[in-house]
Specification:
Layout (H helix, E strand, L loop, with lengths): L2 H13 L15 H16 L3 E4 L5 E5 L9 E6 L12 H17 L7 E6 L12 H7 L4 H4 L10 H7 L19 E7 L4 H4 L4 E7 L1 E10 L3 E2 L11 H18 L6 E9 L6 E2 L2 E10 L2 H21 L3 E9 L3 E2 L2 H13 L4 E6 L5 H4 L5 E6 L15 H18 L4 H6 L1
Parallel strand pairs: 3-4, 3-5, 5-15, 6-14
Antiparallel strand pairs: 1-2, 2-4, 6-13, 6-15, 7-11, 7-12, 8-10, 9-11
Length: about 425
Amino acid sequence: MDRKERYQLLFDKISQYNSGEKGITRVAYTNEEQACTQAFMRMCKAEGLDIRMDQCGNVIARREGRIKGLPPVLMGSHLDTVYQGGKYDGTVGVTAALEVVKRLNEKGIETDHPIEVISFACEESSRFGVSTLGSKAMAGSFDKEKVRYLKDRNGVTLEEALSLCAFEIDSVHQASREDENIKAFFELHIEQGPVLENENKKIGIVTGIAAPVRFSIKIAGTPSHSGTTPMNMRKDALLGASEIALELEKVALSEQSCGTVATVGVLDIQAGAMNVVPGEVEIKVDIRGTSVDSRQRVLDHLKRTIELVERTRNLEIISQEIISEEPVLLSAEIIETMETICKEQDIPYKMMPSGAGHDAMNMVKLCPTGLIFVPSVDGLSHHPEEHTDLDDLLIGIDVLEQIVIHYSKMDSKIKENV
């Protein structure tokens, strides 16, 4: 079996863990996601890796280095998905990391530094509205009180979901590796956008990661009969929500040059009916960008809009911040090394920011971090038709392998003192 067939087989094994009929549904801390995680651990064990799971559910599979005491080089991503998502988001990075280990074993390469394959828990925000919980826990930035009572669509809290998987939210802080010396972290991921494909580039070298600010906004008016309530006497919560959404789009468009975006991704009408003026509406807002100043301008406009709509439409509006994260810049040294690898291998590449959040953004707090993109066909992601060509995946794995080997060699200055 050649490498291409081997990787496809590995990838397909992961894809079979799915609770839905359309796309892939493998949501964090569910039976399907936990079964997939256990299967991945068995795959790692088959390659001779030492495996452990931390208190948040992150899998850490370690290949020891030749020299004891050196800090590990980490690589990985996540296995959980959104509802009715695609096969590639996250899964590519985890399976690619294991494929790199398979290649090292195949070649009999013994690295100086230990290497760890990481599968982070709960990267997607689809279940609880907050993302990258596993890497936050590893980076020591898991705020248990802020997330403890967040609920999924079935009313299950994060604390309950963790407990059902035999984790305790009050113990998650023990997953922190803040006091540990880690040499570097690398994540391979699909682009989730159309840029690389449109520009015929095979590798995206990510320079920085945008971070989200997310809000739940509840708009309360008065439910009333649609036929007997005059237009000028209505307190229509849906129209208030719509006005906020349109203003949010307008201000985000004005920040296009900075790359800032804003989305109303959820709109719920409480007790909605065709013949009832909506009395209570909840919307969920996602604002993100790599420019802190630009993102703040959008936030300021949103707050002013809420105040204006509340006053002019005689509504009561409560806005609650779900999460706020800071944009990050990735390691300049790693970016330069990746660029050298691409040039030496004659791989078309592009320097680019990431508009989506990734576990890499939290790992920056622990060590120098690099993020590699491979093309997404038609830019689709979080979608059943999400796809990346196998040949493009293998090019990404080639780059990941080379950068991991480069960083797992002992520095010459250290070697002289050993």
